[in-house]
Amino acid sequence: MPTAIAVTSADLVLPPTDHQTPTAALLPPPDAQPLDAAVADAQVLVEQHGHLLVLYPSSLPAAHERRLHTVRSLMESDRIALLKSDLPPLGLAVLVRQLRQLSVCDVSPGVLASAARLLSHYVYAGALLHSVARLDRLPVDLGSHARSWMPGAQFAVLANPTPRLVRIGGAEAELPGPQFATSLLVARGQSTATWVTDALAPAWRVGELAEAGPPESSPGWWGTPKLVEFAAYLPDLSMLYRLVASVRREVCSWCGADLIGDRCGFCAAPVPGAAEEDPRRTPAPAAASGARLVPAPGRRALTRGVRQGPG
What we know:
29% of the residues lie in helices and 19% in strands. It has helices at residues 35-49, 62-75, 89-102, 109-120, 142-147, 195-204, 218-222, 237-245, 285-289, and strands at residues 4-7, 25-26, 52-57, 80-85, 124-129, 155-160, 164-167, 183-188, 208-212, 227-233, 249-251, 258-260. Helix 1 (35-49) packs across helix 2 (62-75) and helix 3 packs antiparallel against helix 4 (109-120). The longest helix has 15 residues, at 35-49.
């Protein structure tokens, strides 16, 4: 059975891109499920799948996060990984789907858990906003705050991997994009602006553009409901697999789990003697695959090493 993936809200579960990708379990907030039921559900997931990875946003209410830690503590299990992410809602949903895809491959639970940190640096997540007056999760200068009150103002904001804010119509109305082939997912809030599809997608040379329903938590994360959220990502499972497989594996000295990077995804213990490294210094997708990246329509799937899941 593939490693179980769980999330804290249903809007983090995007539709699968193929018939092999499993869904993700939902772990509700404390006011929606009693503690004993939450423990029982987690126990079933661990018994059925062996390990459970829970992905949740850093913006999750404190009570909900405490519930996750309480469930793991009561189960006294070292097979549950709690993975907090700073990605905005749509970007996190993309990361969750990528881990769901990888869960059917020959990837150990420990490597899959630590891969969340690696893969997040290849998700270019942002939004077009009509105001940044209430945007408090990213640095916003005083001038941008002032321009938010001007009628018709629009801002392009990149939250990950490197924060950037530009005013649409300004001298530098461009966001730094990925240097590798990606697909682009767009979720429209209360905005009819077309800048993301008409300008950003061509500038980033995305191979495929798709739309998704707006995550319920997006207005709170971005500080306004008038937005168009977007996330560019590596769409090919074979490329994700090769990227993860290209990183040297370690064994956690505390819990014994396999891992990549410098920190265990299950117990958060650092690799002994390893200096803090920037995860973005891992091999780029092109180097990991051993092939030159080209726009999505011209790519050829590389499936060696990928275990096929049930049909």
